[in-house]
């Protein structure tokens, strides 16, 4: 693959170029890093609340429930949304119809 020079109008006008595709790759890896950091934070808070035995009354269960909902949303986002973005990116790529050796 050859790198294409972006147009003088800027990178926003080069939506189909390799440079724009590289930007998507960088955005996906940053997104995955943030998902991992949120996951680690939620698990860490759950462990801390469990070690503090923060479950004596109904009002003390509220953080546990909200953290579990956040964990499920984070996992859903990491699995389903990442898969959807990946499939969408693959569908945008040009398909090679013939291979010359």
**How many extended strands?**
0
Name the overall outline: rod-shaped
Number of helices: 2
For the report, how would you describe the main beta sheet? none
Portion of residues in beta strands equals: under 5%
Question: Considering DSSP H and I runs of 4 or more, what fraction of the residues is helical?
Answer: 55-70%
Cα gyration radius (Å)? 21 Å
Distance between the termini: 16 Å
Report mean pLDDT, rounded to a whole number.
77
Which structural category fits the helices and strands?
mainly alpha
Low-confidence stretches: 7-15
What is the N-to-C order of secondary-structure elements (H for helix, E for strand)? HH
Explained architecture:
The protein has 2 helices and no strands. The protein has 101 residues and is mainly α. The longest helix has 35 residues. The two termini are 16 Å apart.
Question: Could you give a short description of this structure?
Answer:
With 101 residues, the chain is mostly helical.
Topology:
Layout: H1 18-51, H2 58-92
Helix pairs in contact: 1-2
């Amino acid at each position: 693959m050859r790198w294409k020079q972006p147009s003088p109008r800027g990178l926003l006008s080069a939506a189909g170029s390799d440079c724009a595709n590289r930007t998507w790759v960088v955005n996906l890896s940053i997104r995955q890093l943030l998902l991992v950091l949120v996951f680690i934070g939620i698990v860490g808070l759950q462990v801390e609340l469990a070690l503090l035995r923060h479950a004596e009354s109904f009002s003390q269960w509220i953080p546990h429930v909200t953290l579990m909902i956040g964990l499920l949303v984070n996992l859903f986002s990491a699995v389903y949304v990442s898969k959807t973005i990946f499939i969408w990116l693959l569908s945008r790529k040009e398909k090679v119809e013939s291979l010359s050796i």
